């Protein structure tokens, strides 16, 4: 197919004005701070590239667009937009704008692709690609910061567990689902026994280490669908979707025994801690709110404390 330099070279003397106009257009295209190329849509032959492309990708020789612009391509690119540039009647479909990370130089480009009529009347592809790497990395940094902020807003910094806010947000959703699908739901609450004594004897930092250790034990025991949170100073809660009371009790006992069996060594001194558990469970949760269920679990926790601590009490809520 005819390339622009061929047009300039082959123009007859009496078409000098024509030639000058084409050369002027090429000069304009070469002065732009964007990569521009034109390629045959069937053979992928490069019909025009501007100086910007030459500076970044070198001389094209006889390379086709996919050989010239990308690496490791043994044929046309899988992400080639040619099919988006023509409609079902093989007519130009307008402008298609997309963003792409170039496989040769790793830069990000915003590409503006279009099928246009070439000198011989054929539809060809023109791409105008602007380097947006700086903007993209700023966007990526912002996105990472947003995700970090979101994570921190929902995470208890000491234990890395969900915080109270997330527990309530997710919990309300779980209860709605339970109501919709008529599933049993349970809540386990637990609270360390005589934790004040640990703080008073060993200091607040050791108390923190104990809280972290207890959180790790609980986190290692629950299933991924369970919502484990630190909802107060030394108070934890686990919302158990699709879990009836016997199952919740089994889990609570497993965690309780694991906490009681654990020994934390601080300066070679063994520190042990125990916890009391309360469970509430509903088979058909009806109009029960998360707060209702949590309050019932809290009452059961209080009973465990009252009856000697390091134990589990449970209540089945009637529908
Ligand atoms: N180290 C540490 N201590 C905390 C934190 N949050 C709350 N506490 C402490 O937890 C202790 C709770 O004391 P109490 O409410 O009397 O409960 P307890 O000593 O565990 O007694 P029982 O619950 O009745 O068995 C207090 O000393 C609080 O200062 C925390 O983030 N880190």
UniProtKB/TrEMBL annotation:
- Pfam families per record: GGDEF
UniProt keywords, alphabetically: Coiled coil
Point out the coiled-coil segments of this chain: 128-155
Class in the EC hierarchy, top level: transferase
- Give the matching PROSITE patterns: GGDEF
Does the UniProt entry include the keyword Kinase? Answer: no
Q: Which cofactor does it need?
A: Mg(2+)
Catalysis performed (reactions) = 2 GTP = 3',3'-c-di-GMP + 2 diphosphate
The EC number of this protein is 2.7.7.65
Q: Which GO terms describe its molecular function?
A: diguanylate cyclase activity
SMART domains assigned to the protein according to its UniProt record, in alphabetical order: GGDEF (SM00267)
Every GGDEF domain range: 183-317
What PANTHER family is this protein classified in? DIGUANYLATE CYCLASE DGCM-RELATED, REGULATORY COMPONENTS OF SENSORY TRANSDUCTION SYSTEM
Q: What is this protein called?
A: diguanylate cyclase
Origin organism is Thalassolituus pacificus
């Amino acid at each position: 197919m005819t390339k622009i330099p061929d047009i300039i070279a082959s123009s007859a003397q009496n078409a000098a004005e024509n030639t000058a106009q084409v050369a002027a257009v090429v000069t304009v295209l070469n002065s732009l701070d964007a990569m521009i190329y034109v390629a045959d849509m069937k053979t992928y032959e490069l019909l025009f590239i501007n100086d910007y492309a030459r500076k970044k990708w070198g001389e094209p020789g006889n390379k086709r667009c996919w050989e010239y612009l990308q690496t490791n391509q043994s044929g046309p690119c899988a992400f080639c937009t040619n099919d988006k540039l023509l409609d079902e009647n093989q007519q130009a479909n307008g402008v298609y704008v997309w963003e792409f990370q170039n496989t040769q130089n790793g830069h990000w480009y915003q590409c503006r692709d279009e099928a246009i009529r070439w000198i011989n009347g054929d539809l060809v592809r023109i791409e105008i690609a602007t380097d947006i790497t700086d903007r993209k990395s700023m966007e990526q940094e912002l996105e990472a910061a947003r995700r970090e902020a979101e994570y921190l807003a929902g995470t208890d910094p000491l234990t890395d567990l969900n915080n109270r806010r997330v527990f309530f947000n997710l919990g309300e959703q779980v209860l709605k689902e339970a109501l919709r699908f008529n599933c049993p739901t349970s809540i386990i609450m637990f609270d360390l026994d005589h934790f004040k004594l640990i703080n008073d004897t060993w200091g607040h930092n050791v108390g923190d280490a104990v809280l972290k250790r207890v959180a790790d034990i609980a986190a290692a025991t629950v299933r991924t669908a369970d919502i484990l949170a630190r909802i107060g100073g030394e108070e934890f809660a686990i919302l158990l979707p699709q879990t009836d009371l016997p199952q919740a009790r089994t889990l609570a006992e497993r965690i309780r025994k694991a906490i009681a069996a654990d020994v934390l060594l601080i300066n070679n001194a063994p520190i042990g801690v125990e916890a009391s558990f309360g469970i509430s469970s509903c088979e058909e949760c009806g109009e029960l709110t998360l707060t209702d269920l949590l309050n019932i679990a809290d009452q059961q926790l209080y009973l465990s404390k009252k009856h000697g601590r390091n134990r589990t009490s449970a209540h089945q809520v009637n529908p």
